[in-house]
Design goal:
One of its GO terms (molecular function) is transferase activity. This protein is α+β, with helices and mostly antiparallel strands.
């Protein structure tokens, strides 16, 4: 049983820990064994904190044994994207400039996970400063996709996606500014949830673009994502973007009943120029949801035609504002791709930025009007399968297109509007997983989670896992 512990979800492990059928010590040992076995190939960790994890697991074991069980996360091994602050520990942001930066306080999400009794196994690899979607990091090495070690795991939270997919963490947190939770979730065949903007505090998380940034879970199951969402949600006056909206008991309210639910489909935007393999898998999944009683309704959101412009202008200009001084003083310390994007952001005009914000407002209004008639909107998460490490282009049905342009085409609107969006695997094609995106109304994550839960019950992945887990 011990060798299979790392494969299991929080939902499966929590009752075993609570009932003392297993110990946090043996669970942590199983996870660390996988890290030792696989991470030399995958490179999902920037820092492995094995000894600290063992000590924390022992402390959790003693607490549970004495009757002080804190809840479902108590004794669960997790690792976080190395952009969230731990007091007295290095937070690199995947960079050279901040390689030795040590914060003197915990991020809000870190405090909540510590209070829940989580065991931290280390810091996970990421795209430099979260400004990219490949996790090909020039300072800490490229992170690789466990499904195919020659392919990218997505980004910027690529280490989080890869670690969870390869059973080197039971769950993780990532950040999402243009898709950086959902992109690695889709690429690595796991669940990635970007909650409503303001739902989870970003205090103590290094910013990429403050008006677009989100923190959210990457997990093995929908239930686990719901559990982490309810644990991490809540108003935080230290985060100026935090919204005072009560969270729900998401994990206890999951339902697979889709009768009468309406799914919106925007063919003109979300199914335009999509790899045939991705299109087929996503449409098959939608068909299965229809069989469960959901109704499909065609929708049109006109301002989506300008969404790519608005996302690119907003993210580049805000990111370049964050890094302006370091770009002037230490341009040579940035990776080539990150430096290029930061220099590009310096060229964006105030007119460009304000036009982008006008588009955002119009887009948000159109989405809100659409959600008066539909419960969720479904699309592919990515229009392509993960490319090779080092490629700057993707092939979509014989067309060679820019990776950067295509990678956030379907995820970016969720950041512009701040709406909740989740990526869930819906099948495997040519040995690689395919992600389906579910978007919902603001602060109604339960709608997104319930559709995802119903889809998960269909077992469209047929239990397939990365070959890495059976080969090495």
């Amino acid at each position: 049983m011990t060798q299979d512990l790392a494969k299991q979800s929080i939902g499966e492990l929590a009752p075993l820990l609570q009932n003392k059928d297993i110990s946090p010590v043996e669970l942590t040992a199983a996870v660390l064994k996988n890290v030792d076995k696989y991470d030399s190939q995958v490179n999902s960790y920037i820092e492995i904190q094995a000894e600290g994890a063992r000590q924390a697991a022992k402390a959790a074991e003693l607490e549970i044994a004495s009757g002080n069980y804190r809840g479902a996360l108590h004794g669960i091994p997790m690792a976080l994207k190395d952009i969230m602050y731990f007091k007295g520990e290095t937070a690199t942001m995947g960079s050279g400039i901040h390689r030795d930066f040590v914060p003197d306080y915990d991020a809000a999400v870190v405090s909540k996970l510590k209070n829940a009794g989580v065991v931290f196994t280390g810091k996970l690899n990421m795209h430099e400063y979260a400004w990219g979607a490949t996790t090909t990091n020039p300072h800490f090495g490229a992170c690789r996709n466990p499904w195919d070690l020659n392919k990218i795991p997505g980004g910027s939270s690529g280490g989080s996606g890869a670690a969870v997919a390869a059973d080197m963490a039971i769950a993780s947190l990532g950040t999402d500014t243009g898709g950086s939770i959902r992109i690695p979730a889709a690429s690595c065949g796991i669940i990635g949830l970007k909650p409503t903007h303001g739902r989870i505090s970003k205090y103590g998380c290094f910013p990429l673009a403050w008006s677009l940034d989100h923190i959210g879970p990457l997990t093995k199951t929908v239930h686990d994502a719901a559990l982490l969402l309810e644990t991490l949600s809540g108003y935080d006056p230290r985060d100026p973007t935090s919204i005072d909206k009560p969270a729900q008991y998401y994990s206890g309210g999951l339902s697979e009943d889709l009768k009468g639910k309406v799914i919106g489909i925007d063919e003109d935007y979300f199914f335009r120029n999509v790899d045939k393999r991705v299109d087929e898998a996503v449409r098959q999944a939608i068909s299965e949801l229809e069989k469960l009683g959901a109704r499909i309704e065609p929708i049109k959101i006109p301002s989506l035609a300008q969404a790519e412009f608005a996302e690119l202008v907003t993210i580049t200009s805000e990111a370049s504002t964050v890094h302006h001084q370091n770009l002037i003083k230490h341009p040579e310390m940035f990776g080539e791709d990150t430096r290029f994007l930061l220099e590009f952001g310096e060229l964006v005009t105030a007119v460009d930025y304000l036009q982008a914000q006008q588009i955002r407002r119009k887009l948000s209004n159109e989405f809100a009007q659409t959600f008066e008639h539909v419960d969720v909107i479904i699309s592919p998460t990515l229009p392509f399968l993960p490319p090779l490490i080092g490629d700057n282009t993707v092939d979509i049905n014989g067309q060679t297109l820019s990776f950067l342009d295509e990678v956030i085409r379907f995820t970016g609107p969720g950041n512009l509007t701040g709406l909740p969006a989740l990526s869930i695997p819906c099948g495997v094609r040519d040995g690689l997983p395919i992600g389906l995106q579910i978007m919902g109304p603001a602060f109604e994550e339960e709608k997104v989670l319930n559709v995802a839960y119903a889809l998960e019950k269909l077992q469209l992945m047929k239990g397939q896992k990365p070959d890495l887990l059976s080969v090495l």
